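Practice problem 4.
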């Protein structure tokens, strides 16, 4: 919608109606002024043409903080509660404090680069925040709030992948021996010998374990979102899986066996355990045993390493661990352990039969 030029005092003025402000719902207009009516008409027609082609918008007078909050509510509404909580944490703890009351239309590539440089010096992993900003700015373009995405012209500082600490067989067995016969055996076994994720360990029920045939079924997970425990289905088809577990741990599981849909590793009152709370207890357990600090999730890395070291096919390991492809497994565990290197060297020795 547009208002044809009209005289206002000694000037000809006119406007083009813009999409309403998505935050406040207020009307937005692009005004044009000139000494002659023809000039105003020409400028209005050029603007309307660019607007219709989708390659020109009038930046909205809203802050980045306001837009990100609206973006979370609208564009992220169908994502999992844990994903939304993660986005919200990055936005409110890092992005918003840096940009404060900056209008979204005033943010240039230089400002994004300054933010990345600052966080890089603090040792911050920027990949998640880049993904958030990039998607939020692209969606702002679709809503006619800005003309371009400032992230497109900015590169992340080169960051090293954090080193993953993986236990040796000796360290894992020391841990397992120390908690032998206690309830703590369960997450250590399920993580280190079955490769379960923390959310899978907390969500698994006795009805998901077939002790007669040594099969585990991953049908649900327990995640923490907004300080509440949420029981939900695994996030993708490959995580929703079943696999054989080592027969040696059958007796361990039978010692703790519960009934029906009771949780395998519940709180004392039988309700679902909070994975975050248990991670703190796990950290203290390792400290008491004078073992290197690892995350509970690293027990899953131990499983993968043992499978690969012992020659298990990558495709089989991928299916057992619930990765979406063998390539992802190889990327995550691209390090080669000393055992695998020694085995490779010994195989090469066989080439030199005459020496």
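Answer key:
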């Amino acid at each position: 919608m547009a208002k044809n030029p009209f005289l206002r005092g000694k000037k000809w003025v006119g406007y083009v109606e813009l999409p309403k402000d998505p935050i406040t719902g207020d009307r937005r207009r692009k005004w044009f002024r000139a000494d002659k009516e023809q000039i105003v008409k020409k400028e209005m027609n050029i603007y309307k043409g660019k607007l219709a082609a989708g390659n020109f918008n009038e930046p909205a007078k809203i802050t980045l903080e306001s837009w990100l909050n609206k973006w979370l509510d609208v564009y992220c509404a169908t994502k999992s509660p844990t994903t939304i909580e993660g986005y919200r944490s990055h936005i409110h703890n890092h992005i918003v404090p840096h940009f404060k009351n900056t209008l979204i239309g005033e943010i240039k590539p230089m400002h994004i680069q300054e933010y990345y440089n600052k966080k890089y010096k603090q040792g911050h992993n920027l990949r998640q925040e880049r993904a958030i900003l990039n998607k939020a700015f692209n969606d702002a373009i679709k809503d006619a709030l800005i003309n371009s995405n400032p992230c497109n012209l900015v590169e992340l500082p080169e960051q090293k992948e954090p080193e993953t600490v993986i236990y040796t067989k000796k360290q894992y067995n020391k841990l397992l021996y120390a908690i032998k016969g206690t309830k703590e055996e369960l997450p250590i076994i399920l993580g280190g010998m079955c490769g379960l994720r923390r959310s899978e360990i907390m969500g698994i029920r006795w009805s998901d374990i077939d002790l007669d045939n040594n099969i585990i079924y991953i049908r649900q997970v327990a995640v923490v979102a907004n300080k509440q425990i949420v029981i939900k289905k695994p996030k993708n088809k490959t995580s929703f899986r079943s696999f054989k577990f080592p027969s040696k741990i059958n007796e361990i599981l039978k010692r703790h066996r519960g009934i029906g849909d009771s949780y395998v590793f519940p709180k004392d009152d039988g309700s679902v355990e909070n994975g975050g709370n248990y991670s703190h207890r796990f950290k203290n357990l390792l400290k008491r045993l004078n073992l290197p600090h690892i995350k509970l999730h690293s027990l899953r890395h131990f499983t993968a390493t043992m499978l690969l070291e012992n020659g298990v096919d990558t495709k089989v390991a991928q299916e057992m661990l619930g990765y979406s492809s063998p390539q992802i497994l190889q990327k995550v565990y691209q390090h080669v352990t000393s055992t695998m290197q020694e085995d490779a060297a010994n195989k090469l020795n066989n080439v030199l039969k005459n020496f």
